[in-house]
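Lecture 7 notes: from sequence to structure.

We start with a single chain of 191 residues. Read the sequence below before looking at the structure.
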Amino acid sequence: MKKEKLIIKNKPAGNIIWKWLWGHFDSMSQILNEFLDNSISNFKKHNPILKNIVICITELPENKVFFSVEDSWTGFKNLDSAFSLWTQDSKDSPMNEHWFGFKHALATANPDNNNWKICTRDSEQLKNSCYTKIEASYQFEDFNAYIINEKDEKWPWQLHTSWTYISFSCSDNLFKTVTEGHSGNFWFEKK
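Now the structure, written as C-alpha cells:
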C-alpha cells in the first residue's frame, strides 16, 4: 500500500491568539509604559539626535478614548519579528526583556482587535516620502500592511521627524486606570 502524505493545517487563528495576549497588563499606565520602554530602548541603542516621544489623548463619543504614541526613534527594523511570537530579533536593550510586551500592550489596549494602527518608516522610506502602515486585525498571515506614498495619504503624526506612530482607542474604564493610586478626579476637562 502506498503511503499518502497528509498535510495538517495547525496555524492558530489570529483572534484567538489576540485574546490570549490580552489582559497581561492591569492598567493604562502599564500599556503606555510598554510603548515608552520600546522607544527609550531604541534611543539607548541608536542615540538619535532627536529623542522625542509624544502622547496624545482625545475623548471620543460612546465612552471611548483615542490614544496615539509617536517617537523619533529608528522605526520598526523588522516588522516580521515585531508581530511574531517568540522572537527577539529586534531587541535593542535589556528593556526589551521578553518577546510579548508590545503585543500584550496592544492587545490589552484594544481587546476587540479592531481599531489599532501602526505607522513606521526607516531612513530609506523617509528619502522616498513613504511609510509602512499596519492596521487591525492581528493575524498570522495577510496582515493589513501597506506601503503608503505621502502624496496619497498624509503623514498621520504631529512630528515630521517621527519614525513610529501607534494609535488605538479604548474604553474610558481602561483609560481611568491610568490614575489608579492617585487621589482626586482625573478626567477630561469640560468647557
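The chain has six helices and six strands. Keep this in mind for problem set 3.
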